[in-house]
């Protein structure tokens, strides 16, 4: 029996919640969120329905790239607490049915990492080949820039080593040489270390760049994906239910390679293509871009999954859209240059993009919880947290969590004006207007809506496990999709109207597959208090309000 046979494929239907620890809850009044503060909020996450907590980097770091410039893979930055605090967080989460995963950043290290410092001082030493070097600046050094306007080259000259080193990201983030067996062993040790501390897996950063090979002399050049198989195999041996969630923003024709033919590489991939298409569809008031993107996705192995999201922890990227399509999205959701970043993205959260329009917020998050795949929330999305344009670059979307209308927004008991990231106090998205405490007390709040959506999603795991297909509606404004899961004994159907006007659609209901069919019923959506009459089979005719949505379900013999 393989190690993975001990897994229940929990990632197929998880509810993942991404947290920037320093922005979530400050426990000691220093203005910086920490692990102890996060542990104190575990009951909140459990009540919301979260089943997997994803920690953005908490490693010691110079913090020149939000912690993704790692200086020590085996530690916790003192501002967040200690390894003991992390273990207590994992224990508290596990007791409430929540798994914990963390960022695995192994494409590069910080230039302050002891490996790089040793590498630059001794060209003949063991650590020199931990990185990618050249005696002369490569001719393609200006290609593949990740941060236009902030980055001029992917190679820099080190005056100590007197050689050029590769960095797909910033110059202070030299790339690790994964062709070196010693580096692979080090990464295995890092994975093993954190799994032993109780983590259930990792969100693997910058996966396409990890396997980027340099020089034909390396044997793995023939199949760079062998390294992903190696990562997966090691993680599964150490913990049978370990999950690897990959950041791989690639074209549709390359995505399947990151799962592998038998699902032997990454367990889960972020669905960047669908995310970008959903924004375009909403900008146009037309479901066609979303339908096209769904149909373009490759079929995935049974044990694998897509990770759907509305907003990730960086800028909302639209790099896979055409220039014209991207201009449409920019015009709709980020028209000012100050709202855009790197020429490809928008540095705003979704509620800000739609000016707090509750109808469009519900539509997009209804899609998040009903589209095939596993939903991923970025902290604060459940209350409609906005962004802070005062913060530079990507930090704009990483403002402190807003717990109450007290000073500091309930995030910190210290002087909020001295916090490294100041809480947003005023305006339509400030903590005096948007906070957890007020929304808990309001039955009609977005927080309570999100809790209901998550609870319904859990009651209908068909959305995560089932085989899916889009259905004809006769109207371009509406996306209708159906999922069927034989093992679960049920079907689910969802309709979403991307337009700002009501639309009547007629959908042919899938045929019943069992004599014990209890019939379709309305389970969630706009107009849930007066659901339409649903036939067992035939056609369903329904009018969707502007940005309206409905979920329906059917069970057999239950």
What is the CATH architecture descriptor of the largest domain? Alpha-Beta Barrel
Strand content: 15-25%
Query: What is the tally of helical segments?
Result: 16
State the CATH superfamily name of the largest domain. Glycosidases
Helix percent band: 25-40%
- Mean pLDDT across all amino acids: 93
Summarize the structure.
This protein is 27% helix and 17% strand. It is α/β, with parallel strands linked by helices and 558 residues long.
Describe the secondary structure blueprint for this structure.
Blueprint: E1 16-19, H1 35-40, H2 42-48, E2 52-55, H3 83-95, E3 99-104, H4 114-121, E4 133-134, E5 155-158, E6 163-166, H5 181-196, E7 201-204, H6 207-210, H7 226-238, E8 243-246, H8 252-259, E9 268-270, H9 272-284, H10 288-296, E10 305-309, E11 316-317, H11 323-333, E12 340-341, E13 345-346, H12 350-353, H13 358-370, E14 374-378, H14 436-440, H15 446-459, H16 462-465, E15 467-470, E16 478-485, E17 490-497, E18 503-508, E19 521-525, E20 539-544, E21 549-555
Parallel strand pairs: 1-2, 1-14, 2-3, 3-7, 7-8, 8-9, 9-10, 10-14
Antiparallel strand pairs: 4-6, 5-6, 11-13, 12-13, 15-16, 16-17, 17-21, 18-20, 19-21
Helix pairs in contact: 5-7, 9-10, 9-11, 13-15
Overview of this protein structure:
Residues 1-5 have low confidence and may be disordered. The longest helix has 16 residues, at 181-196. It is globular and about 75 Å long. It is built from 16 helices and 21 strands. Helix 9 (272-284) crosses helix 11 (323-333) and helix 13 runs parallel beside helix 15 (446-459). It folds into three domains: 3-106 and 181-456, TIM Barrel, CATH 3.20.20; 114-166, Oligo-1,6-glucosidase, Domain 2 (Oligo-1,6-glucosidase, domain 2); 467-555, Golgi alpha-mannosidase II (Immunoglobulin-like), CATH 2.60.40.1180. The protein is 27% helix and 17% strand. With 558 residues, the protein is α/β, with parallel strands linked by helices. The two termini are 33 Å apart. The strands form five sheets. Strands 1-2-3-7-8-9-10-14 form an eight-stranded parallel beta barrel, surrounded by four helices. A five-stranded antiparallel sheet has the order 15-16-17-21-19. It has helices spanning 35-40, 42-48, 83-95, 114-121, 181-196, 207-210, 226-238, 252-259, 272-284, 288-296, 323-333, 350-353, 358-370, 436-440, 446-459, 462-465, and strands at residues 16-19, 52-55, 99-104, 133-134, 155-158, 163-166, 201-204, 243-246, 268-270, 305-309, 316-317, 340-341, 345-346, 374-378, 467-470, 478-485, 490-497, 503-508, 521-525, 539-544, 549-555.
């Amino acid at each position: 029996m393989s190690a993975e046979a001990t897994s229940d494929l929990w990632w197929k239907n998880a509810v993942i919640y991404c947290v920037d620890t320093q922005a979530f809850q400050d426990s000691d009044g220093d203005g910086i969120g920490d692990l102890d503060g996060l542990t104190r909020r575990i009951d909140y996450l459990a009540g919301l329905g979260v089943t997997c907590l994803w920690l953005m980097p908490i490693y010691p770091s110079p913090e020149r790239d939000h912690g993704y410039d790692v200086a020590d893979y085996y530690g916790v930055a003192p501002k967040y607490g200690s390894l003991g605090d992390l273990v207590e967080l994992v224990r508290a989460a596990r007791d409430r049915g929540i798994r914990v995963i963390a960022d695995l950043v192994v494409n590069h290290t910080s230039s302050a990492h002891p490996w790089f410092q040793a590498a630059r001082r001794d060209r003949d030493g063991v650590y020199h080949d931990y990185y990618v070097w050249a005696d002369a600046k490569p001719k393609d050094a200006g290609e593949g820039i990740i941060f236009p306007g902030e980055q001029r080259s992917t190679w820099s000259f080190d005056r100590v080593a007197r050689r050029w080193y590769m960095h797909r990201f910033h110059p202070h983030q030299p790339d690790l040489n994964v062709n070196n067996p010693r580096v692979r062993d080090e990464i295995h040790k890092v994975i093993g270390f954190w799994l032993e501390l109780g983590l259930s897996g990792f969100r693997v950063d910058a996966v396409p760049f990890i396997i980027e090979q340099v020089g034909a002399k390396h044997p793995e050049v023939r199949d760079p994906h062998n390294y992903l198989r190696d990562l997966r195999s090691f993680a599964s041996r150490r913990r049978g239910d370990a999950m690897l969630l990959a950041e791989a923003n690639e074209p549709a024709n390359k995505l399947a390679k990151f799962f592998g033919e038998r699902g032997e590489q990454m367990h889960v991939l972020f669905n960047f293509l669908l995310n970008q298409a959903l924004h375009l569809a909403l900008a146009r008031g037309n479901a066609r871009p979303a339908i096209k993107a769904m149909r373009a996705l490759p079929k995935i192995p049974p044990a694998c999954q897509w990770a759907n999201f509305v907003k990730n922890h960086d800028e909302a990227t639209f790099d896979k859209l055409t220039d014209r399509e991207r201009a449409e999205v920019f015009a709709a959701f980020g028209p000012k240059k100050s709202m855009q970043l790197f020429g490809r993205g928008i540095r705003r959260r979704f509620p800000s993009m739609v000016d707090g329009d509750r109808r469009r917020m519900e539509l997009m998050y209804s899609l998040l919880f009903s589209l095939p795949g596993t939903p991923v929330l970025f902290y604060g999305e459940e209350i409609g947290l906005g962004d802070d344009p005062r913060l530079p670059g990507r930090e704009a979307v990483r403002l402190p969590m807003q717990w109450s209308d007290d000073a500091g927004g309930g995030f910190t008991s210290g002087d909020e004006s001295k916090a490294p990231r100041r809480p947003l106090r005023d305006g339509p998205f400030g903590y005096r207007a948007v906070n957890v405490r007020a929304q808990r007390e309001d039955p009609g709040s977005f927080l309570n809506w999100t809790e209901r959506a998550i609870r319904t999603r859990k009651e209908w795991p068909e959305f995560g496990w089932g085989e899916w297909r889009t259905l004809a509606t006769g109207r371009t404004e509406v996306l209708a999709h159906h999922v069927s899961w034989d093992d679960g004994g049920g079907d689910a159907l969802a309709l979403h109207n991307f337009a700002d006007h009501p639309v009547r659609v007629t959908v042919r209901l899938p045929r019943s597959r069992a004599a014990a069919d209890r019939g379709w019923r309305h389970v969630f959506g706009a107009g849930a208090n007066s659901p339409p009459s649903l036939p067992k089979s035939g056609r369903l005719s329904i009018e969707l309000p502007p940005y309206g949505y409905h979920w329906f379900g059917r069970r057999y013999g239950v």
